[in-house]
Write a structure and sequence with these properties.
alpha/beta; Urease, subunit C, domain 1; TIM Barrel; binds zinc ion
Amino acid sequence: MQRILFSDTTIDERRWDLRIAGGRIVARIERSEGRLEPEAGEEIVSGGSLTPHLAEPHVHLDAALLGQRAPNRSGTLREGIRNWATLRESLTEADLIARGLRTAQMYTSWGTTRIRTHVDTGNLLAVQTLLALKEELAGRGITLQVVAFPQEGILRAPGRRAAWEQAVALGCDAVGAIPHLERTTEEGWRSVRLAFELAEAHGVAVDLHCDETDDPQSRNLEVVCAEALDRGFSGRVVAGHCTALHSYPNPHAAKVIELVAASGVQVVCNPLDNVVLQGRYDDYPRRRGLTRVDELWEAGACVGIGHDSVQDPWYRLGTASLLDAAYMLLHVGHLTGEDQMRRVFRTLHQDNHLPFGGPPELSPDQPARVLWWPHADAIELLRERPRPRVFGLPEAP
Ligand SMILES: [Zn+2]
C-alpha cells in the first residue's frame, strides 16, 4: 500500500508535513510546530503544494467531444444549438458511454473527480445512459451528478415539459431549466417556478442555465433567488452563466447581487464559453459576457467556475482542465489582483465542491484524495497550468 510523506508542502499558504498511508491521511504537522520524520520504505515528495481534488460544477457530457462531427462555422451559440439538435438525434448508448468515459478520464488527469453534468432532456436515452454512467464512474472514484436540462425550454413546444419531468423521475440529481430561452418573460419566470416545484416533489436540487444572454432585460436570476428564499432551498440552488448581470444597469445589478448573497444561490461562471459566445450581437465595443464575479464576491455571494464545454458544438477548445477556465476568468473578469488570483484558484478546490456537499478536508483520518502541485504559489500554478499528481483514486481495472 502506498505510503508517502509530503515534506514541507504548502496547504492554504502555510507549510506542512503530511503523511498518507493505506488510502488515508494519517498525520500532519505544521512546519512551525515540528516535522514528520521519514519512515522506511516511504516515498518522499518535497515542496510544492497540496489541495483536495477539484470539482467541476457545470459541463455537458452528452455533447462532449462532438464538436468535430458538426463544425460550428460561425462560432455562435445559435449555430451550436442548431448543430446539437441534429447530433442529438443520432446519439447511441455506446457512443454516449465512450465519450462520457473519455471525458471523465480527461477530467481526472487534471485532478477533477467530482463532475456535475447537464443532460439534454430532449433525448431520454442520453439521460438514462448518463445515469448509468454515474454508477460506472463511482467505481472509479469519480462522483457524477446529473442535471435534467431542457436545452430548448419546457414551454415552447408540446411534449418538452413531459420529457423533462420524465427525466427527473428517472433519478436526476437536480432539475435544470433555461428561462431566458422560453417564449416570453412571463413563461421564463413560470419555468423557474415549475423547476422549483419539480425539485421539491422529488427532493432534489435546482441548477438552471440562467440569463445566458447579453440582454439587460433578462431578469430571471432575481426570480430564482426569491424562489430559493421563499421555499427554503438555500444551498441547493445553482444559477449558471448569469451573463445578463454583466449588462444590467448598475443600480439593478446591485439589488440583484444583494439578493444572490442573501439567498445562498451559487452563481457558476463559465468563462471559456461565455467570452466567445456572448457579445455576438454587439458591434464595437464588444461586451465581455461574463457575470460580475468581483461584485458577487464583494457582496459575500458564492461563485463557482465551470468549464461548460469539452470540445462540444459550442466550444471546440475545451481541455477539461479547470485551470484553463480559471485562467480565462481572471483575465476577462479583471481578477488579476494577487488575492483575487489566489481566490480564483481556491475556488476550484473549495467553492466548486458546494453542489457536492462541500469541500473535502485534508485532515487526519480523511481519505487521501489529494492533489500534489509542483508549485507552492497558486499564482505560479495559474501561470503554468501544470498537471497535478493525483492521489486517492482506485487502481484502474
Ligand atoms: Zn451549460
